[in-house]
Write a structure and sequence with these properties.
Largest sheet: 6 strands, mixed
Shape: globular
Number of strands: 14
Distance between the termini: 51 Å
Helix content: 40-55%
Number of helices: 18
Strand content: 15-25%
């Protein structure tokens, strides 16, 4: 059986239209806003689909509610269960309370606290939360086990016909709200549910739109599966973009996306952090890493999108304020402005003073300084964090350290050392 036939059997435009009907009184029709700063920067019209303004601050309510609305009394009598790194759990919890079905949520222990408390808030007495494992995939296994054991219906976060149809309702709103023809659509891919839904509707209603999927560089599950021609499990992933970092995409989402994607862009995590900060500082938009992901991809497409109409789906805004320091740090490192060194200070009086006066540039800042040995501080090596004003100042700093005789090791360039010390 060819993949196209398989897709047609799975999710069709009619399914998305039915889901739109089922969701009309539950989800917010989120705004599609032309963003002036981004439009000027890329010399095109950039529209942001603001799913961060959804009632659970992400698009996930669409799929979860649509799926649960279809369940029979028999399927809900023992309750429902799901696994989620955060956003699906919130959509699931909201739907449980709305439909008065008891739900159990399995979340990785690494889930930001803010997301856990939001799940409690949305589900109230209808939801029980269990934290298990380090990744989404660990939580997923445990949820499947619970489903069999307690005979609860499993609500998949992405690899499900009704979930995909629900996420696709986002595309109906975009196309209804945009008066111009849309040349490019950029959307995040985690497990693939959002993209499968959006793409299915767009291909049918706006076939000329180029569909660009975006994944974090440290978790390219869809890109690697497409390369291999089948769904593969990544041995390990960078978990920072928690809303889009999965080790394995869905079988169904893969079979749909492979026929829809025009391209897939991998974005470094540090670049996503820069985008999060820019969105906050310039537009007061609080985007989580997965929500900022599509906007981060525009730099890789700046020539192609000039003069075009471009839509980026800001898929979620569940960002934990406690992560902002890490986000700032990752952004500075990516932009080449934050550098860490282990510096061996020579055994001579005034060596530290000399470092400050003659090695540091006039706009360089020391952001961290600690001796690596508790005793013998005068001659021991020190961990020194330096923030530059401009990326170009780096060469001068390195040159002066060498010239003045301060032996050093660059921590940024040694990943093992970096993880150990920073």
């Amino acid at each position: 059986m060819s993949h196209v036939t398989k897709v047609e059997l799975n999710v069709q435009v009619e399914d998305i239209l039915k889901a739109h009907q089922a969701l009309k009184d539950v989800v917010i029709h989120t705004p599609l806003e032309r963003n002036r700063q981004l439009s000027e920067k890329y010399e095109c019209n950039v529209f942001l689909k603001r799913e961060d303004l959804q009632m659970v601050r992400s698009f996930k309510i669409r799929g979860a509610y649509n799926k649960m609305k279809q369940l029979t009394d028999e399927e809900t009598k023992n309750g429902v269960v799901c696994a989620s790194a955060g956003n699906h759990a919130q959509g699931f919890a909201y739907s449980c309370r709305e439909l008065k079905i008891h739900g159990k949520v399995f979340m990785p222990t690494t889930t930001p606290k803010q997301k856990v408390s939001q799940v409690k808030l949305h589900g109230k007495e209808y939801v029980e939360i269990v934290l298990h494992g380090d990744t989404f995939d660990d939580a997923y296994e445990k949820a499947e086990e619970c489903s069999k054991l307690e005979k609860r219906t499993f609500i998949h976060p992405f690899d499900d016909h009704h979930v995909i149809a629900g996420q696709g309702t986002c595309a109906i709103e975009i196309l209804n709200d945009c008066e111009e023809p849309i040349d490019y659509l950029f959307a995040s891919i985690g497990g693939g549910g959002l993209f499968a839904g959006l793409g299915t509707y767009f291909r049918s209603v706006s076939p000329d739109t180029k569909l660009i999927g975006v994944e974090p560089e440290g978790a390219p599950a869809m890109a690697k599966s497409l390369e291999a021609g089948e769904v593969i499990t990544l041995p390990e992933i960078e978990k920072f973009v928690d809303g889009a970092a999965v080790q394995r995409v869905g079988e169904l989402t893969f079979s749909i996306c492979r026929n829809l994607l025009d391209d897939i862009v991998l974005v470094p995590e540090g670049k996503i952090c820069t985008t999060i900060l820019n969105l906050y500082n310039e537009n007061a938009i609080v985007a989580e890493p997965a929500g900022a992901l599509p906007i981060s991809a525009l730099d890789f497409y700046k020539e192609q999108i000039k003069g075009k109409n471009v839509v980026c789906v800001v898929s979620g805004g569940n960002n934990d304020i406690g992560r902002m320091q890490e986000i700032k740090e990752r952004s500075l490192i990516y932009e080449g402005l934050q550098h860490y060194f282990i510096v061996n200070f020579p055994q001579r009086a005034g060596a530290l003073r000399e470092f400050l006066d003659e090695v540091l540039g006039p706009t360089d800042d020391i952001t961290r300084f600690e001796y690596t040995k508790k005793n013998n501080k005068d001659s021991g090596p020190a961990l020194v964090g330096i923030e530059l004003k401009h990326r170009e100042d780096y060469d001068g700093l390195i040159e002066r350290m060498k010239k003045k005789g301060f032996p050093f090791t660059e921590v940024n360039k040694d990943s093992n050392l970096f993880h150990l010390l920073i």
